[in-house]
DNA sequence: CTTGCCCACTCGTCTATACGAGTATGCATG
DNA sequence: CATGCATACTCGTATAGACGAGTGGGCAAG
């Protein structure tokens, strides 16, 4: 247990009314911000800090837990506490559903990830008929049952997004949309072939902390929120033909929209 | 210290390899999800749970800290731990900058909040010239200095959003845009009067955990992420005439966009 | 050289205790 | 009745100790 390089971290201010564990967290945070520790670097161990500050181990752990909650660091059992690297982000532009992007055979996700040089995967594919939730039913116009298409998207082995599409049975049942592989251009291409020419989409965006289930399927580190996006697709007759419910790891995404000023 | 109503919470499973504090958190979470506790309800005190489960206080506190991290509950010193109420959300539609909304005298925020029956406020108004950050400079096209307009928005006394607009000095200096009150229709109306007819906006959206400073200015409860929105306004000549950097309390907002399918 | 074990170091979980500080309530005092 | 204090309850902070479990390096045996 080598002593901490002096000057790396300061001393505590016993006269301060700021709690000791907060002071320690502040100093670590500042050291990270100032670049004393870089992404992926190992922070001093709990034992190091116990010795350096002369406090008990629980106090140090308390400090770490603050930084974890902020998403700044993550602990690895048996190894140490590390500065959390910012993962590469995926940019979603608002024209990502434009018809011209729908021509080729591969899905938008695959094409885009390949172009960005990362390795895309889709798994947990599940297609089945089920009872519509209240919310989905309201959005699709009072349908009882729907076709649900679930899938998880991964980039370089890391899950980044979990999405479920809901479609009214009278549209989707018996079509290729009900097959695991919906064919080139995805379900939007199939919908248009079926006569539902798409007119516009509505997207609702929320951000919140993940549920335990979401932590699991997206393998989220603590302190990482999710972006919850609900998209409704409307055809030219004004009918809602699909609702897509997407939960994204917030640290992996930047959403981008272009709005007319008219 | 009245005993806990039996049946409200279950027992621990000593054979489970799930940590005790997680089991307790699970049971509390489930009880909340099932509606055994409603928004604003007080959960059993730490002492109650210590007695009920026969564990130490730190273990119970550990459970609570999980739920706090999820944004499910919040603790009040001297009172207890409560189920966090879902605050009313503000919906931001993608047409909120349409020209027709810019006619009246009051700001969009005030009009909209009044209509929703809540009491809007704007404070911390600050207008000054300053050095442009790298990011802002890049977005505005390599300007050195900018006019910055900072303000905080509150609904019913609660801060919900903190925004800063940056404008190139050659556009804003000496105009009403540089005054604390930009006049009816806001700075977008002034920009158009100055000959910068607006063509479109670009919005970039991220979600992340707040910095300590953001926790303070937005008075955020723990477990509440922020939505970080960066909007760039372009005039008909393709020039970026304003960058607006907005940090919103994520539990107070739903963003809504409408996209053409073309 | 390879295999396998031991050991040191790491964080994870849990107990027990202590005192501080904010809140609410009831009771005694004025 | 009103004021103010005592008190009990709440969570906040901190200490000290114990054992468990994952990781990785070194060393000894094969």
Automatic annotation (TrEMBL), chains A, B:
InterPro entries: Bact_HTH_transcr_reg, Chorismate_lyase_/UTRA_dom_sf, Tscrpt_reg_HTH_GntR, UTRA, WH-like_DNA-bd_sf, WH_DNA-bd_sf
Keyword list, A-Z: DNA-binding, Transcription, Transcription regulation
CDD domains: WHTH_GntR (cd07377)
Domain of life the protein comes from: Bacteria
Domain HTH gntR-type: 18-86
The protein's name in its UniProt record: GntR family transcriptional regulator
